[in-house]
């Protein structure tokens, strides 16, 4: 129960942090075309970072499930992955808005854009994987292992 409460507080603090960073974002510097273009970065970057943190939380909870076999860890892994997926999708969309304003094209298959697309596909497959088994134990075990190995792809986005 205490862990669930802490996870809820973590989610709330992440959402509050993104909101505060966006509201308090400074005006654009000379490197940007417009103040609106600069301001989107103060939403885009924290959301992208938080998606990585949620994917990390999902992997940690996945390892905990594989070790202890307690359903609470599966629930944490799944919840963190769901939120991380939404944040990664939001980071992709805000990145497209920034790219369109800054460079005149929203998507030009830059390596980072390709990789975030692949990352979204990898994590979307997680949800399909959860539907592929008949017993909860099988579903939770395979999903936990997939969350752990799926996280191995996240550091490539930082590079």
Can you describe this structure?
By secondary structure, this protein is mostly helical. The chain has one domain (2-26, 36-158). Helices cover 81% and strands 0% of the residues. The chain contains 6 helices and no strands. The protein has helices spanning 2-23, 35-68, 71-103, 111-130, 136-151, 155-158. 25% of the residues are buried. The mean pLDDT is 84.
Structural class by helix and strand composition: mainly alpha
What overall form do the CA principal axes indicate? globular
Distance separating the two termini: 37 Å
Task: Show unreliable segments.
Answer: none
Task: Give the number of DSSP strands.
Answer: 0
**What percentage of the residues does DSSP assign to strands (E)?**
under 5%
CA gyration radius, whole angstroms: 17 Å
Question: What's the rounded overall pLDDT mean?
Answer: 84
Describe the largest sheet: none
Order of helices and strands: HHHHHH
Number of helices: 6
């Amino acid at each position: 129960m205490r862990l669930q409460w802490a996870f809820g507080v973590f989610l709330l603090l992440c959402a509050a942090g993104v909101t505060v960073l966006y509201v308090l974002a400074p005006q654009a510097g000379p490197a940007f075309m417009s103040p609106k273009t600069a301001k989107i970065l103060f939403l885009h970057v924290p959301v992208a970072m938080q998606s990585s943190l949620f994917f990390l939380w999902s992997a940690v909870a996945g390892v905990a499930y594989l070790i202890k076999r307690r359903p609470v860890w599966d629930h944490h892994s799944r919840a963190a992955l769901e939120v991380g997926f939404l944040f990664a999708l939001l980071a992709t969309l805000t990145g497209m808005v920034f790219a369109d304003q800054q460079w005149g094209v929203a998507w030009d298959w830059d390596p980072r854009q390709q990789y975030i697309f692949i990352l979204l596909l990898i994590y979307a497959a997680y949800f399909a994987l959860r539907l592929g088994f008949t017993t909860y134990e099988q579903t939770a075990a395979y999903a936990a292992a997939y969350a752990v190995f799926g996280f191995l792809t996240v550091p490539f986005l930082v590079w």
